[in-house]
Design brief:
3 domains; 11 helices; alpha+beta
Length: 507
């Protein structure tokens, strides 16, 4: 009897020990400070996958980064982030590791834009009314979770923590994205954001020296007046370019413009364009989303409220942001020219070549660009009022045709005959849902696996392989296609570039 009593007491004591440990683990704050933060700091230093890599800390939802979260999850993320920022040798993405001074003029490390890993914190409520926190690392290039890295907590939240979990919050890490746009109260942050993007783009153009005139006459939304000047001051402070009011010195123009996307959502484009055709500098651009409530166009004098103003807003072009025109400069600007001989049209569609013998005139025009890297190039056309199509060669095959380009190679792609005089075409930096002019695109990809995904996506576009106009993708189908294309390119933006020209066909 005594022996049985001793055994029973031993069992009860043994059961009591994990109960104490579990009660300690239920304290989320204690687990965060004593377990998670030391673990993350150590792993960022010793784990081989993180060596010399840039990381960002995000809140996860359904295994994906969440731009809209809650106050508790973001508080947990921010505490871990602050500890990582204070850890020597850890590189944090610019958007999270930047100075609190949005107009900081100190030189910036653009390598911090190239984030390779997300450290994700996911907070969920279980069916048994308990809560859990999972911490994992996502390799953005491979789209896989990092093995050998992770922490888990499960327990109860305090009343204060549960209240914080019910409070919706946006993650300003994604500020400027479509689902986390800037507001008019954040134009200084918008200016710093675009100045950073453009500065890093210019640093890659080491052979170009920009002496820029600021275009302050560009029509823009009422609340954005002065934004271009603010951005130019940011750029000058960062020593990214030289500003000058002397037209004899300048070789480029800095301008900004807001395009309405949907209701009060606008996309603000900042562009640096060569002042003259002969100027030996590359066109560059950067963009961000912004909310402009009750917006009136600056170039519409004293608009009256009511149907007239609504018609003006409805007439604004709807654009989709496709990364990343001009950022990595994988190709030169797109040009239009006439063929030097009939042989230049040999890669055109069958109907184009047949037209040669029927008319006796040169049957095509030429899209021309130069590859700056070994890459794969696709050609598209947005036919005004007839939709987006992909362009094919003589085979006219169903699958998307890719053109292999070597660095320094001149690419010449025949298209149906169109106006080629310089005054009748110009470079554009937009993907519009309803362009008023025919627009040609050259999309270049420098990664083979990504090129396959892009080609598969382009297979969904109607094919044009003759001189005749073909019905293309339009309306909501086109919006969905472009949105998916934006997602594909955004995930691997350093491997994607594009150029486009719009043509006023006066033939």
């Amino acid at each position: 009897m005594i022996r049985r009593t001793l055994i029973l007491l031993t069992v009860l004591v043994a059961q009591a020990i994990p109960t104490v440990a579990e009660s300690r683990e239920k304290d989320l704050d204690r687990w965060l400070d004593r377990d998670l933060i030391p673990y993350v700091r150590q792993q960022l230093i010793v784990h081989p996958r993180f060596k010399n890599e840039t990381v960002m800390f995000v809140v996860l939802h359904d295994n994906a980064p969440a731009s809209l979260s809650n106050a508790l999850a973001l508080s947990l993320r921010d505490r871990v982030l602050a500890a990582a920022v204070a850890t020597p040798g850890v590189a944090i993405g610019w958007q999270q590791g930047r100075s609190g001074n949005s107009l900081d003029s100190q030189s910036q490390d653009c390598t911090l834009d190239d984030v390779h890993y997300y450290i994700g914190i996911e907070l969920t409520q279980k069916l048994d009314s308990s809560y859990s926190v999972n911490v994992r690392a996502l390799d953005l290039e491979d789209r896989n979770w990092v093995t050998g890295f992770g922490k888990h907590w499960k327990g109860q939240l305090s009343t204060t923590q549960r209240q914080a979990m019910r409070q919706s919050r946006i993650d300003e890490t994604f500020l400027g994205a479509r689902d986390v746009p800037f507001t008019l109260a954040q134009t200084d942050l918008l200016a710093a954001h675009l100045a950073h993007q453009l500065t890093c783009t210019m640093q890659k153009r080491v052979s170009d020296e920009y002496v820029v005139a600021t275009d302050l006459r560009e029509p823009t939304a009422e609340g954005l007046r002065g934004t271009v000047e603010l951005i130019s001051n940011n750029l000058a402070n960062r020593q990214a370019l030289v500003l000058s009011s002397d037209e004899t010195r300048t070789n480029a123009v800095l301008s900004g413009k807001a395009h309405q996307i949907d209701g009060v959502l606008f996309q603000y484009w900042l562009t640096v364009t060569p002042q003259n055709e002969d100027d030996d500098v590359t066109a560059l651009s950067a963009s961000a989303y912004i909310v402009l409530p009750d917006t009136q166009l600056a170039d519409v004098p004293n608009p009256k409220p009511g149907p007239a103003l609504k018609q003006t807003a409805a007439a604004m072009p709807v654009a989709i942001s496709i990364p990343n025109a001009g950022k990595d400069s994988l190709i030169s600007s797109l040009h239009l020219s006439s063929p030097a001989s009939l042989s230049d049209c040999r890669d055109g569609g069958i109907a184009i070549r047949e037209a040669t013998y029927m008319s006796g005139v040169r049957p095509c025009s030429i899209l021309q660009t130069e590859a700056h890297a070994d890459s794969i190039v696709f050609f598209l056309e947005h036919q005004a009022n007839h939709g987006l199509v992909r362009l094919a060669g003589t085979e006219c095959r169903d699958r998307t045709k890719a053109h292999i380009a070597r660095s320094g190679e001149l690419l010449r792609f025949p298209i149906a005959k169109t106006a080629t005089a310089k005054q009748n075409w110009s470079e554009t930096y937009e993907w519009l849902l309803e362009p008023d002019l025919d627009t040609y695109y050259a999309v270049v990809v420098s990664d083979v696996q990504l090129a396959r995904r892009v080609a598969n996506h382009m297979d969904n576009l109607p094919l044009r392989c003759s001189a005749s106009i073909r019905p293309g993708l339009e309306g909501e189908d086109l919006r969905e296609w472009l949105s998916d294309f934006a997602m594909i390119t955004a995930r691997a933006s350093k491997h994607v570039d594009w150029r486009a020209v719009k043509v006023k066909d006066v033939l």
